[in-house]
Amino acid sequence: MTGKKKSPSAIAANTIVFLLMIAVFVLPFLYIILMACKSAKESALMRFSLPETNLLFQNLGHVITFRDFEMFRALLNSTMLTVGAVTLVVIFGALFAFVAQRKNDRLAIIMMGLLVAGLMIPPSVVPTVSLLRTLGIYKTLHGMILIDVALFLPFATMIFRTAMTGIPRDLDEAAYIDGAGPLPIFFRVILPLLKPAIVTVVVTSSVNIFNDFVGPLYFLPGAKNVTAPLTLYNYISQFKTEWNLLFANVLVVSVIPLLIFIFFQRQLVSGMMGGAVKG
Amino acid sequence: MKKRGSKTALTMSYPNWFYLPAVITFAIFFIWPTLSAFYYSLTRWTIFNATFIGIENYVQFLSDPMLSIGLKNTFIYGILTSGLKTILALPLAVLLTSGIRFKGFYRSLVFFPVLVSTIAVGITFSILMQPNQGLFNVILASVGLPRVDWLGNPKLALFSVIFVDVWKGIGIATVIFMAGILAIPQDYFDAVKLEGGFYIKFRHVIIPLVRNSTFTVILLSFIGGLRTFDLIWAMTGGGPGFASDVLTSIIYKQYQAGFYGLSTAGNVILFFMVTLLVFPLRSFFNSKEIEV
Amino acid sequence: MKKTGLFALALMVLLALSTVLYSAGKEEAVEAEGPVTLTYLVASGTDSTQAQVMTDAYTAMNPDVTFEIELRPGGTDGDNVVKTRLATGEMTDIFYYNAGSLLVALNPGETLVDIADEPFMDVVDDAFKMTVAKDDGVFGIPNQTAMGGGILYNKKVYADLGLKVPKSWAEFAANNEKIKAAGLTPVIATYGDSWTSQLFVLADYYNVQAEEPNFAADYTANKAKYANTPAARAGFDHLKEGFDKGWYQSGFATAKYNQGLEMLATGQGAHYPMLSFALTAIKENWPEEVENIGFFAQPGNSASKNGATIWMLSANYIPKTTTGAKLKAAKDFFAFVVSPEGIATMNAGFPPSGPYLVKGAELPADVLPAVNDISSYIDSGNSAPALEFLSPVKGPRLEQFCVAVGTGQMSPEDAAANYDKDVANQAKQLGLAGW
Asked: Residue A279: how many CB atoms within 10 A of its CB?
């Protein structure tokens, strides 16, 4: 804790922290990578060891080309799903939070309460399927997008509402006096100032939507609609699991969330600053 | 330019229709299915038709001899995961906002598990926790400790899953705390500087001033813990036997078995339980909130 | 706002909208004459490989008909996918699923195409038809072979230790003590795949019906219970005995099916209570060892009444949503599966794990020893179908109760009583009379 001073005890403390961090957070991922490098037979032993021969590229190649490059379709579907849902979540959530926080009247409080309930109630699968069918959007990407929007709105709205408390009313007023209507005020004044909160929402919900396993299983069945996490199940079955390919698949489907994170990493902490997140 | 309008005119610039996109989507795709679930929970519902049977599903769900295990486990899971995340993430956040070397690298490390799919994390750890060649036991054995059956021992399985949940989720909690700490104005630290001591700083500045973050972490992880499903499913499936079943896994198994009405009744019960626990907690926290 | 930010936002909105439009535009293609593509839902794993082999062979003969195989998870996850998709009318053109009690839960009369009168059904054995029939309809064609459920054992271990195949539970228990004394695992348990825990209970059915011939009928009619029928409860007692006497290997509570197969094949374990379809996987992974694996029926109390419990085959079905040219193609594919060419294709791709229930279908000459063991029980008349093919009621949580007993968390008495409640739930859900 003593900053840049290089006393022996500080160096020792630094080393201990370093080793602990590596042990706790790196070893499990190292294991995934090692398994992805192995042959089927070697990986079945499940040891934490270097592979006899490095088959990483063969395994990755197998995973990517499996069933006519199904992986590309899966990544494309998941990306469209994530981009579509997250965009709508951000815009709908921010519009709502903007007015709800500014007015803070009875209506706003009641609706906010309803949304918060959405954070707690588990979604009900079968009624949702029948609803999607009635609307004719079952098994379609936009049906799944709308479901995800409904599921992720509550969290986003909470974050935006809190972030709104940090944006002075004077700014709306000034824009209003300049003759701007509500929409321009929202898009030109509010939205840019919400950027840190938006980053928070984008990172958390895109990672969750991208990795969602259960949702697409129920609401988006069909070989054409395969999403990234479902490809994991190509290698796990009731009767046999191909560990090397499974972990190679884990690596492939983790790439996009990782990219999202690297892209937004710097803004993430600042995005949660100022109590931007709270119950 | 002339200043136009009074206060009433100003409120005109917050039109109610801004609510609509969110409210309509939420109402159609969440509230409607949830409400129809209430109705279906009163029926014997096969995939093809629903027969009204009153509260029989609720009676059946609550009289299930295995339910008590699930309820107990749900509480343990919610309390332990939120408690541990709070206790561990705060020091971690202090560390990661201090002058320590490789700070940026550590921040990414801690957040990384959040990015990986829960299913993949669950599978990985269930292998690492294997009784014979699993890494955990290999390490224990190398320092002369007895092997532990992390997921196979009925008394231990739930706690092993809780450990992994904390590992996977601590990144979010840490980031929330880091944001809270970074938002503390430097003056506060300067004020206690003379009195010295890291402990003083931690006890008298950080802890009181990150209270809002603490509430957020506790609340979010408590809700998450009560609703948890993926990780338990990937690691133990609620087993061995019923040993690590929680409410959601019981509900899911009844759903799988085709007992849709029964499973929906379980959902409604879970909803009331979460509401009864979380709403009071939330309003308590809101009343204790501080302005920095 | 910075221009770039606004631009990025506009881009995102555009992307989101185009996603919605893109998926909205892709409606079902209009049915055309000529080439037909059949969608085919199968469980991932061996079943999907088999589906691939059979459909490839068919497409080679009929280039106009191609298949698109969709995978689903196995086990109860998969049951749910099948049920949901049938209920919502979104099933594939043909699909593969269990026969017996699981099929009844699909409400076949309302959801599946009745193929009782199709000419290709003539060659299908009546014993099989019984398991895919409800009321007057017959709904499935057999896939693969019937199976024995009992004890797979390592013959090398038996030879090394000078053991004889047990005919009664007492002999089995005595063998286990000798195997344990030799430092090997007497009984392999793999509760990490919890379905494998049920064998001691389910494969005991030959013994149950030997002592209580009316059990299946009484059980379906809500008269006989596991808790008050000692012969039926014996399966749970066996699970407990194995735990108390330390017959299971260390780490059995999380061990996986595949690890169990390895232990058996390599002789680390002597017995594995299992269905004979496991032979396929053993042959694939340990081809040199599969000849050392034998099968014997799960022994009961009396050596004079010794016989095997038989599992019927899984089947292929056509949902009612398949019509027109697709229905015609689907039926023609089914005719191929049970034809001599179809059987030959299956034999070439997969070692049979029991007898075919198709008239005139021969097992190949180089059939595995364990399959011969099963056939000899059937040929000598000492076999009975498993309970799930005689009664539509099977509690969904049986495997959890079995694991709870086998890990020492629950007594056999409690498990039997609780399982009876589970069964009652299922019977009510199915709307059976008398519950």
From this structure: 22
Are C204 and C155 in the same domain? Answer: yes
Listed as own residue / partner, the contacts of C16-19 with beta carbons closer than 8 Å and 24 or more positions apart are C16/A83, C16/A84, C16/A87, C16/A88, C16/A145, C19/A80, C19/A81, C19/A83, C19/A84, C19/A141, C19/A142, C19/A145
Mutate to test the interface with A, among B11, B29, B206 (most CBs of A within 10 A): B29
Other CB atoms within 10 Å distance of the CB of residue C392: 18
Considering the domain architecture, whether residues C135 and C118 belong to the same structural domain is answered as: yes
- Mean pLDDT, all residues of chain C: 86
Integer distance in angstroms from the first to the last C-alpha of chain C?
69
Q: Do A142 and C68 touch (CB under 8 A)?
A: no
Asked whether residue B1 is assigned to any structural domain, the reply reads no
- CA–CA separation, B115 and B122 (whole Å): 13
C156 and C169 belong to one structural domain: yes
Domain borders along chain A are 70-271
B16, B26, B216: best mutation site toward chain A, by most A Cβ within 10 Å? B26
Shared domain for C399 and C319, answered yes or no, is no
Half-sphere exposure of C5 (CA within 13 A, CB side): 14
Which SS3 state, helix, strand or coil, does residue A27 take? Answer: helix
Separation between Cα atoms, residue C135 and residue C137, nearest integer Å: 6
pLDDT band at C165 (very low <50, low <70, confident <90, very high): very high
CA distance C284 to C279: 8
Alpha-carbon separation of residue C125 from A182, B179, B276, C159, C388 (angstroms): 75, 71, 58, 37, 18
pLDDT, mean of residues C256-284: 91
Whether the per-residue pLDDT at C25 is higher than 50: the answer is no
Task: Provide the residue range defining the domain that includes B208.
Answer: 56-287
Residues 6+ apart with CB under 8 A from C162: none
CATH code (residue B139): 1.10.3720.10
CATH assignment of A70-271?
1.10.3720.10
pTM of this prediction exceeds 0.90: no
DSSP state of C97: E
* Residues C251, C395 share a domain: yes
**3-state class of B129 per DSSP?**
coil
Do the Cβ atoms of C417 and C393 come closer than 8 Å? no
Domain hosting C109: range is: 36-145+312-361
Instruction: Say how many CA atoms lie within 13 Å of B236 toward its Cβ.
Output: 33
Which of B48, B152, B256 has the CB atom closest to C253's CB atom? B152
User: How distant is the Cα of B39 from the closest Cα of chain C, in angstroms?
Assistant: 17
| Residue A68 exposed, middle or buried by CB count within 10 Å (0-12, 13-18, 19+) | exposed
Cβ neighbours of A128 (radius 10 Å): 24
Q: With respect to residue B249, please indicate whether it lies within any of the assigned structural domains.
A: yes
With a cut of 0.90, is the ipTM above it? no
User: With an 8 Å Cβ cutoff, is C182 touching chain A?
Assistant: no
